[in-house]
Amino acid sequence: NKCGVDKVVMLIDNEKFFSNQFDQVTYNTNHRGGLVYDYNLTRLSNPSQYYYRLYNLSPKHFPYRQVFARNNGIWDTTNLPVGSHPLTFEITDVIGNVSRVQMQVIVEKGVQRSSETDQPTKAWSLEVWEFEGFLEVVCRSTTPFRNPPTLQISQQNRPPVTVSLLPKGTAAYSGTYELLPGQDGILQLTVSAITQDGKQLQETRQFPVHTIFANRGGTVTYGNNASMSFPPGALYEDIFANIFPTTSYETAEGLPVVGEVYDFRPAGCPLEKQGTIRIQYPANVADPKKLGIFWWDMIKKRWYFMDDTVEPQTHSLTAEIIYPSVYAILQDNVNPVISDLVPASGNTVPASPGELSAIIKDVGKGVDETSIVMQLDGKRVDGEYDPDRDKYAYPLTKALKSGKYTLTVQAIDKAGNPAKTQSSTFTIQ
């Protein structure tokens, strides 16, 4: 397989800050790939793309041993000199070819700036962005302010905090607020401002904070509609977990969404052990077998079925995950399709054609392998299904006698949708 590059190196101020040599990895550490790649953005597609983590989140678990990460790859700019600092990335293939790219990071004191020009779309807006361990609050306005806006943050059992919002690009201000593990509850974020003409503006947002500690695991819920759980030892570090409804997806023909689509966060968080998500479906669903938990691939723009379990007593589906992302319950109304029977109908073939085969594809929950029936002149032959190639094949162990034969193939998907039976009549010389 094309498994990415051979070596990555990052230099800051012309000194090596991070490097990883992809020389060997063992099967028993294969599940730790999420420490190396951001699974949420990495795809083994055509073309492949890899998003490498240029830091070492958990040194004792890192699957590659030839790794160097100063300060675990965390670049603290607090005491850096003001000015430009070059970041250089060197990528090497197995032959030794090297590609280099450089960017400049500007360190300033007391001012936050954006590298892009913000384009406000309305007179006054407030945005809350969630990152690992902190929130960024961005206030935008097409009307100039008399003074920079102020952000007040209040939470139960904690004194209110006032954060100054600093200029960020054009007609925008931003400030950050650190989240502290264990200090859970609803944050109330209130931004106040006065325009140059004296108009007072104020807007409030609420943000739920829920800590899940690595050493003991835990569960985050979105009411009774959805939940995400991690066993003890599943996480490499304490996280702030959340579940929000989202509209960042596309629908697929024959696979309607049932209820809400949920964004389980933090997206792409690597796990040492699998987590579990639960999504509730409406109590009036007549046939839960047609339902399934699907994952939305934001790169390929398509839905993938997750092996799930039905819990009829709670009207829920559960599935194990290797990282949080966007998941939903979809209803599978698509019939599988059988094609490309071999030998093909009308063909004349030698007495030993090698194998009998057919392609069986399904775009929903997948083909139920136990439902596949292949018959040769009405007599069942037991082959094997390869889901990676959508191929069902029966190897012939002895030559067939001369004459005409009829090959018939039937199948049903995991949602109970039947495929149209296909047959092929061929001649053995």
Q: Main β-sheet: number of strands, strand sense, barrel status?
A: 5 strands, antiparallel
Number of helices: 0
Low-confidence stretches: 112-122
E-strand count: 34
Which geometry do the CA atoms define? globular
The portion of residues assigned to helices is: under 10%
Return Rg in Å: 28 Å
Residues in β-strands, percent = over 45%
Give the end-to-end Cα distance, rounded to a whole number of Å.
40 Å
Can you list the strand order of the major beta sheet? 3-2-1-4-5
State the secondary-structure class.
mainly beta
Average pLDDT reading: 91
What does this structure look like?
The protein is mainly beta and 429 residues long. Helix content is 0%, strand content 46%. The protein contains no helices and 34 strands. It has strands at residues 7-12, 15-21, 67-69, 83-92, 98-107, 124-131, 134-141, 150-155, 158-164, 166-167, 172-178, 185-194, 200-209, 211-212, 218-222, 226-230, 239-240, 242-245, 257-265, 275-280, 291-297, 302-305, 308-311, 316-321, 326-331, 337-342, 348-349, 355-361, 373-376, 379-381, 384-386, 391-395, 403-410, 422-428. The strands form eight sheets. The protein has a five-stranded antiparallel beta sheet, with no helix packed on it. The chain is globular and about 95 Å long. The two termini are 40 Å apart. 22% of the residues are buried. Mean pLDDT is 91; it is low at 112-122.
